[in-house]
Amino acid sequence: MHRIIEFFVGLLFGIGLLVSGMTDPGKVLGFLDLAGAWDPSLAFVMGGAILVGVIAFTVAKKRTQTFLGDALHLPTSRDINHRLVFGSLLFGAGWGLAGFCPGPGLVAMGAGELKAALFVAAMMGGMFVFEILDRRARR
Prior knowledge:
- With about 140 residues, the protein is an all-alpha fold.
- The protein has six helices and no strands.
- About 10% of the residues are buried.
């Protein structure tokens, strides 16, 4: 049952990305182009996502179980370290260069966009390199 619910939540997320236009890298790059033809629509999508997140975390903080009955584990770390900062910079650079972040990239790839498939391949490559470097650092 969990997998069915996860599938439909993911499907809803993907449909939301398609409807909002966030799978179009031109829309994302238009938002980042502050000196040119700036497109503020992404700010409204982000604002909506932040509002949903604030409400969800407010509800979650009062719970000990998920809605499906599993134990609820919220993040507790508030540390800002070099890994977080460097990862954020890489994420932002990839987002600005490609016009995709992971969710919209996967949805656009599923819709058959070649640029998105290249982005997802590069993202997976980056994850692979991170895992190798992280394992070496732990030794």
